[in-house]
Design brief:
- With 128 residues, this protein is of the alpha+beta class.
- It contains 2 helices and 8 strands, in the order αββββαββββ.
- The two termini are 17 Å apart.
Length: 128
Amino acid sequence: MLPLYYVLRLAFLLIPGVSAQASPFTKYTISAPGINASFIPYGARITNLYVNDKDGNPQDVILGYDNGTQYLHDTETVHTYFGPVVGRYANRIKNGTFTVQGVTSHIPENEHNGEDTLHGGITGYDQV
C-alpha cells in the first residue's frame, strides 16, 4: 500500500497542466456554477472555497493564507492546521493511547505539553 503522501501527490498529477516538478505551494482551482475551490499540494490543503452569498456575490468561506508558502511558516510556528488533510486521524487522542480489539497502542503526544495526540501526531499529513 502506498503512503498517503504519494497518493495525494499522484492525485494532483492527474490535474491537467500539473507536472511532477510543480511547487507544493502552486495553487490549483476547480469550479462549477456558484462554487470555486482552490488547493495546494502541501498537505493537500483547500486554500479557498468561494460560494455565492444570498445576493449572488462570491465569498471565500475558508480560513487560511493568501500566499501558499505561509502554510509552511505556519507549520513551523503556531501550527493552526488551516485546510489540510490532517493525518491518519483527526481531533485528539487522550494521553496518546487507544485500544482496538483488546490491543492498546501508544502514539507520540504532540499537544497540551505531551498529554494528547492531535491530528496525526508529530508529523501529520498536513506537513507533506
